[in-house]
Amino acid sequence: VATTLAAMFVLSWRLTLLALCLLPLFVLPARFVGRRLADITRERYRLNGEMGQMMTERFNVSGGLVVKLFGRPDEESVTFSERAGRVADIGVTQAMYSRVFMTSLGLLASLAAALVYGLGGLAAVSGSLGIGTLVALTAYLNRLYGPLTSLSNVQVDVMTTLVSFERVLEVLDLEPAIADAGDPTAIPAGPVAVELDAVTFRYPTAAEVSLASLEGVAQLDDGEPEEVLHGIDLRVEPGRTLALVGPSGAGKSTIAGLVSRLYDPTGGAVRLGGVDLRDTTLAAVRDTVGVVAQDVHLFHDTLAANLRYAAPGATDEQLEAALRAAQVWSLVERLPEGVDTVVGDRGHRLSGGEKQRIAIARLLLKNPGVVVLDEATAHLDTASESAVQAALANALEGRTSIVIAHRLSTVRDADEIAVIDDGRVVERGTHDDLLAASGLYAELSRTQLASPHTAATPAETTTAA
Question: Among 70, 101, 411, 451, which is 20 to 30 Å from 264 by CA?
């Protein structure tokens, strides 16, 4: 551009200045269109995100089942079509802005050439400008406006591309809620003591752990939640079992989340083998603590791949040993491809009891020193519960264990039982001691014994209590 301008000034400074008068018309549209396209791009990303979220949430196995059971497939189809239509419309709008902008730049360049030809032609007729000079000027003019058009388009591209960087960088700039210690302390190997010392906890606000753009809202709620744990003091000696019982919402699963360091306590300390979890690494905690949750999640992959998620280097013999210990090998032998059978999204091709035993096998492959069982036998029939209980006996042997359950038959043999109510430890002792105390535990026990069903569910027990 600079070289071309210099040559044009040498040929005719008057016509060159005339051509440069149109230069602002290249800059201003680029700024306006760039801002407008950036807004459109931001909206397009938002709509694409909403449509993708709907596909993931509503049209997977679990979501699709709910849609069918409630007879809403037509409504969901209409809603998805509307969102897809908005994505298509905004894509067309973005394309139209881009085409109009490029056409406008081409039009400006043509007008500039026409202006130079017109005024230069008059000068050539009067004899003040040579025809060769005029032709050279118009040729240079094309070499001038070509780069200017490209540079204007680059400005628009940069402004729209920065929208993507905004979304990526705001996620990267979000401080992680859990961080490794700068000088971490190693957790001793094998079964270790688990201790909660004066632990208080409230769940983080949405503003602390998420972003408005990810939630699809204008502003996140930053109101501070209520405290859910109040001064919890618990200790499980190495190789022993602590059972947590109590009504739903009392804070039992929250305690399990703190032991596995899904969160850090807002007050007090959680220790494994005497090491505060904030003074070690997440990798050390994950190696020490194994969790079996009530809702087992299996990936849409082979059974072997799901098992090796806990131990990538596990051999086929180790897989078989873990499956036998989890009382599920007989099932695997009946599967069409054995351990290479694809279990489906969230393991939907397996029953609840089978998935629980697969989760226990995965835990055994991991071989942690501390085991947390969060309602691992909930909602199972008697036969499935018996099989899972046998598998749990193998999983808990020689390990420090925290067992959360509503069914008191699951926890009556624990070394110690802690009754949690409203975020506090209200009772502690053995099964017999707590029955003799005639407190909340005894009330829960009487409720289950009075139930017409021998295997009362957690929800039934809590509601009756």
Answer: 411
